[in-house]
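Worked example 3 (structure in, sequence out).
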């Protein structure tokens, strides 16, 4: 997609947000359309990329739900709140590298609504990425309790509220009513209610084939993470330190497993990094995927291995 096409798409989705009735927007229409714009970045298409398509960022590392086998290792993370100034610095740098053209940014966790300054992140993200689709991704538990100022900030900053759909009871009526009252786009992220898909199994001995794991990995450069000035191809490598610390393991990350946004000269270097495997991929036994029923984590290593 070239730059003109990018601007056209941004305007098109803004038009939809403004004129398409709330009920239709809520039906995942925009969500599905956007997913079509996110083909996996590869060695063959990287030179045609004109902009970074996506990144997500943890506003908190901890979560109030603690799902079994969480792919971000949140059940075994320490409580941690993203520093506002660190996020501002990183946004300024990424906006500089990308000219502010990033398709989608998702503010998540952990559970982002645990962060007492959650709306400050909305202001910052919108300031530096005026045309980007920005969403806050929550498990929904705390949404009904959000004050009006939260919804006003979503409206003002054009932040969509995405709910990860777990088999738990949340007050959807209040959430839907609030979103409609404040004209905020609400999206239920489709997820199975019966099963919790385990994306991969870790091979703690790191005997895997990096290229094979990467090629078969659904997360690879589809779930790019930004964390403290560094870009990671996936949440696995970005948050493996939580796993290592809690279970006293040493799944090693090196400087080849992330990209320092303050050291790269242009966004092409980001594309070059994202499109190929890194040494850490040897720890992912991607071919050995499992599905398990959703449940609360018991913080046992077997959930991830
Ligand atoms: S709600 Fe999401 S972030 Fe929280 S533990 Fe479950 S999968 Fe992880
Ligand atoms: S480390 Fe590599 S194989 Fe493992 S989840 Fe990340 S991109 Fe996929």
């Amino acid at each position: 997609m070239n730059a003109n096409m990018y601007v056209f798409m941004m305007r098109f989705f803004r038009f939809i947000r403004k004129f398409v009735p709330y009920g239709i927007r809520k039906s995942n229409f925009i969500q599905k359309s956007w997913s079509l714009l996110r083909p996996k970045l590869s060695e063959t298409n990287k030179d045609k990329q004109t902009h970074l398509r996506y990144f997500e960022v943890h506003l908190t590392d901890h979560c109030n739900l603690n799902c079994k086998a969480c792919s971000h290792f949140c059940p075994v993370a320490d409580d941690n709140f993203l520093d506002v100034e660190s996020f501002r610095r990183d946004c300024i740098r990424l906006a500089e590298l990308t000219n502010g053209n990033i398709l989608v940014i998702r503010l998540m966790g952990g559970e982002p609504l645990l962060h007492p300054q959650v709306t400050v992140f909305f202001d910052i993200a919108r300031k530096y990425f005026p045309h980007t689709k920005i969403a806050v991704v929550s498990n929904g538990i705390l949404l009904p309790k959000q004050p009006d100022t939260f919804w006003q900030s979503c409206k003002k900053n054009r932040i969509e509220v995405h709910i990860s759909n777990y088999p738990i009871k949340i007050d959807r009526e209040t959430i839907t009513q609030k979103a409609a009252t404040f004209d905020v786009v609400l999206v239920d992220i489709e997820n199975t209610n019966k099963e919790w898909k385990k994306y991969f199994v870790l091979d703690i001995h790191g005997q895997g084939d990096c290229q094979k794991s990467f090629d078969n990995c659904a997360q690879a450069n589809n779930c790019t993470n930004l964390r403290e000035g560094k870009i990671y191809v996936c949440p696995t490598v970005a948050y493996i330190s939580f796993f290592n610390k809690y279970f006293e393991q040493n799944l090693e990350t090196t400087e080849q497993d992330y990209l320092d946004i303050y050291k790269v000269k242009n966004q092409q270097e980001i594309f070059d990094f994202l499109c190929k495997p890194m040494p850490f991929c040897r720890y992912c036994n991607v071919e050995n995927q499992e599905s398990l029923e959703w449940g609360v984590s018991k913080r046992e290593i077997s959930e991830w291995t």
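Notes: Residues 63, 65-67, 70, 72, 74-75, 109-111, 139, 164 surround iron/sulfur cluster (ligand 1) (CB under 6 Å). The longest strand covers residues 52-58.
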